[in-house]
Amino acid sequence: MTERVDQRVREDRSPLDPAVLAGAEAFARSWATAVIGSSYVPMTRAEVAQHLQDLTELLVEALFASPFRTAPGYEIGSRLVDAHFTGTDTLGRTIQLLGEDLLADLGFPGDDKLQSRLAALQGALSAGYARALRERTLAEQEAIRAAVLDARDQAEAMLRASEARFRAMFTEAAIGIGIADIEGRILDVNQALQDMLGFSVEEMRLYNVRDLMHPEDAGSVWRLYDQLIAGECDHYRAEKRFHRADGEQVWTHLTLSLVRDDHGEPQYQVAMIEDVTDRHLLQNRLRYQALHDPLTGLPNRALFLERLGRVFNNRTKHVRAGLCYLDLDGFKVINDSLGHDTGDQLLVEVGRRLDHSVSGEGKLVARMGGDEFVILVEGSSGEQDIVDVADRVLTELEAPIRIAGHELSVSASIGIVERELSGTTSADLMRDADITLYWAKADGKARWALYDPERNAKEVARFTLSATMPRALERGEFYVEYQPLVRLEDSTVTGVEALVRWQHPEFGRLAPDRFIELAEETGLIVPLGRWVLRRACEEARRWLEEFGDSAPFVSVNLAVRQSRDPELVRDVKRILDECGLPPHHLQLELTESAIMGTADEPLEALRALCDMGVRIAIDDFGTGYSNLAYLKHLPVHELKIAGSFMEGLRAENEEDPVDSQIVATLVQLAHALSLGVTAEGVETPAQAARLLRLGCDTGQGWFFARPGPPENIDSLLRGDL
């Protein structure tokens, strides 16, 4: 708009004197300085200066025009308004500046004619400014009024549309919707809610929201409702049951919302109710399937552990509980021989009997898997409560079970744990019950076993030893002690037995009876036996170098698994060669039961060792079953009579004639087979004398020396002891 007016001014303008134009430019600059900042004008500073320069030139041309007209002043006032020079001080500064500076800047400060014309132009400018400002104000007011009317019309249309949409949604919604006042009086319900509950809208209006309470509603549902109508929360969601008009129950997902008035006060409550009965029934069915054994119908492991966890979570001081952990004896045989279908039917019948015999408040029977069941007894008063339960179970299982023409007898082993819950955990209870179950099986089956902390401590220690044994050999925790084998005729040390010991960092010094069996079970007996053999051969070589012909042979125990090791012969030969020990200075001892039951391949190994020159001895002879005819074919050099036969020969004044006769018979047998005889467990001089009389060649026992370090053997060989 400014450009269009400026172009018109320049087209109508008549030429002016250059000095006048220069004065006009000076005034325009002063005018711009005076009004910039008095109004918000959407122009840059340079654009404002140019606009006022154009208006000044128009004003000067009107001032000198002939004939004189005031219309340009009116136009200038209008153009100031059009350009947004509408600040409260803009017009006043402009009129004041025109009167004080314009003529002076043009070079005509005292010209009365120009002064009169200027006054007329000032008045016209003010009039044009005022008229233009009034017209703009009226136009803005009209625009506002029209906008208000449009907004009102739009709001009314939107309200009508919103009401229509709400009514359509309320009426046609698939979920139930109900509206009640803040007192709980039901005002309206839609068709879906009527169908869901079986009541008409008129019947529903007779109810208060609190009349719809269900006796099994969670307390939180109505606690949240009280908070909502008090305005403390705006909505909440909950699972809730309702009674239908026909007495049936319907499960719903309820969303209750608060509607406030313009002042924020609670006014209405709106309930949206979705029928989730089918989903709820499905969830219950799935949960039942997830928590019950599909075969027996009993609670499964998951439900049992959940129940056990609840018992521990709700425990109070001095509350007790007990477990019976049950496993069927011989079930695998039935399952494998008669088929899995018969096995399954057997489990079903066992589950039925257990459930029948163990029932009542605070008791739970569950199938843990396979043929294992568990019985939880809450609030027990002592071990006898759980023992009584176990006895009832064993009695219930005594009657044969008939399945598909088979009459099956089944028994069970039961582990029992009963204790106060404080100071323990559910995991501890389960672990101890499981441990005790295996005690019952180990003790002979068809019985129960009660948890014993001392026995468990021994089992834990045994497990600890088993777990730490491999590293113990690497860490050098094992060592060897030696006990002399003494010729009874002249008390000369002819040999020594190497006995391995374990200096355990936690349990202290351990004798072989604490760990040899574990070494057999874990297979460590082979590397351990190899290590003992090497240490014993090294000591035997040292004695040979130091004592020459008086040096004893060394006797090393050979475990059953070692005797069956295919590398045994090579290991013995390599160790003898590396130690530089003649083979006849080594004796290997095997128990009677081990050597008598030796198969062909291990027997060949013993013959190879015998051919090599290694001595073979049967340890603890007389305690096992001996095939005497077979004995004469074995590559054996020595029989060591078990120490149990020595007890009757220990007394100072008398001897047991039976033990004496047994020893005499064993000695005669050995000598008949050209075998040497060593008596073990010699503890008194009377024993030594009697054994010599009975023909024993050598003796071993505390009477001669206890097992000790190799230095003790050194002293014996030197005659220091």
From TrEMBL:
Cited PROSITE patterns: EAL, GGDEF, PAC, PAS
Coiled coil: none
Domain EAL: 462-721
Pfam families found in the cross-reference section: EAL, GGDEF, PAS_3
Ranges for domain PAC: 236-288
Database matches in InterPro entries: Biofilm_reg_signaling, EAL_dom, EAL_sf, GGDEF_dom, Nucleotide_cyclase, PAC, PAS, PAS-assoc_C
The PAS domain, residue ranges: 162-232
Domain GGDEF: 319-453
SUPFAM superfamilies: EAL domain-like, Nucleotide cyclase, PYP-like sensor domain (PAS domain)
Highest taxon listed in the record's lineage: Bacteria
PANTHER family in the record: BIOFILM ARCHITECTURE MAINTENANCE PROTEIN MBAA (PTHR44757:SF2), DIGUANYLATE CYCLASE DGCP (PTHR44757)
Protein name in UniProt: PAS domain S-box-containing protein/diguanylate cyclase (GGDEF) domain-containing protein
Annotated source species: Lentzea jiangxiensis
